[in-house]
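Researcher: Structure for this, please.
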Amino acid sequence: MLNLLHIQNFAIINHSEVQFKSGMTTITGETGAGKSILLFALDIVLGARVDKTFLHSTKNTEICATFDIDNIPNAKRWLIQQDLTETQDSECILRRKINPAGKSKAYINGTLVTLAQIKELATLLISIYSQHAHHALLQKENQLERLDIYAAHAQLLDDVKQSALQVATLEQTLKTQQSAQQHLSTQKALLEYQYQELNELNLNENEVEMLEQEHDSLANAEQQISSLHQCAHMVYEDDNNITSQISSTIATLQNIPAQTPAINNTIELLQQAEVYSQEAYQEIVAALGELEVNPEKLAQVESRISECHDIARKHHIDIKQLYPYISHISNALQQIQDQCQDLAILQDKLRIAKEAYSIAAQKLSHSRSKNAKPFAKAIEAQIQQLNIPNGKFHIELTQIDRTSPYGFDLCEYQISFNQGQLLAPLNKVASGGELSRIGLAIQVISSQKIAPPTILFDEVDVGISGGTAEVVGRLLQKLSHRAQVICITHQAQVAAQGQQHLHIAKDHHAKKTASQVIELSNDQRIEEIARIIGGIEITEQTMAHATEMLGKLQRTQEKTLQES
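Model: Predicted structure, token format:
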């Protein structure tokens, strides 16, 4: 609950500390006294945009709100997750500091935070229902939201939102891949044509190198044979061949008398040369045996090389890169095939996700259908008490055939004001005053299921008077049994319902105007209620009326507390 609101240098409030109590607090004051300023200040500390017209020209503005979170486990858990509190802390302090230029800093429990963090936490602490909030009920998505609050199926809503998010993510991924797949299909067709053409070449690894070597051998066979024959003659076959000359030289050296070591070494070397010469001749003979002049074989090799050159030229690559290029295309085709399989897997995942979404959305629809009738009946009972005695209220649910974070359902509030009158959409038939009462009834009924810790009603009773205003007060008083209710009001019947009564008044001094907030005693409450009833002139009659009204309501409240 909201314990304290501290305001400094904001609009006509120089300094104010407003302490709030549990139950129902009513806030009254003359028009222009600063009731709206109090609400604006609370809005700002909860993360709203700063309007510089409310700021002091030379002094910093500071607004601070203190909440008791001892019984708000969601807020405690959020603060712990954000590392903004200790587990045992039961108090949460929100603060905004704003300089005259409008630049602000936000704090939670003394730690500098973003406005987004302040706003997220605020939704767990307080709900503000302004005098114009009922206009939001004309929008069907807000009508559905109120039904969901009444139905209290937050987990079902979360399941649907998560399922819808998963479907949307998969659909986007699938769309991206399908777009890429169109390009891949064209690429695949080209690669398949290239691969078929290259595959028909039936090229083996290292075949190009071997062909080139074989071509060199066949193309130079005649010249090689001629040269080898010439070498054979010179080495061994001619009469004056190298081998025989070495042999003669050895014989001459051996016939020299008185052999010296040098001569002996020379003879040994020449004998080795003679052996090498004979071996060389044998190698020449062997080489001649391997060589042949084969024009047909040469033509075949040249044709194969030419075929490889043509294919390589067509694909703009070097002939020696043909075999690696075939492997590259094969790998590229495999990758495309894998991507096609991934697409099929993704489509299957999307199908499963849509089935899961459908199941979750149907469960949510069932819960909405189950709760729509009692919700409508409860609203109908309330609006009949709010001076619409013959009002009939109905909630029409229809389904859409698309994925939405809110499920399959569309919701429309329908109402009739007179007996025999057909039901019609709320936005078609309700006047401003009627809509205000209907909106209040919906807010109160929906909040009875899941009430925020603190609910602030800002002049929601505008245009309502007499017995209807008293009913509104009783509605808010009943709601205060479940949550802290703060109500800014102009109605005496509503103001008298509060356990705490705050009054906002202007204080004129030194040519300056300032607002102050005071908590009224019982006697002061009687005077304030009399002022609201009678206007400027307060008579004994209005005082008596105010005393009777306040006493009657206090007795009723005491009796209700005793019975509970």
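Researcher: Any notable elements?
Model: Residues 184-336 form one domain. The mean pLDDT is 85.
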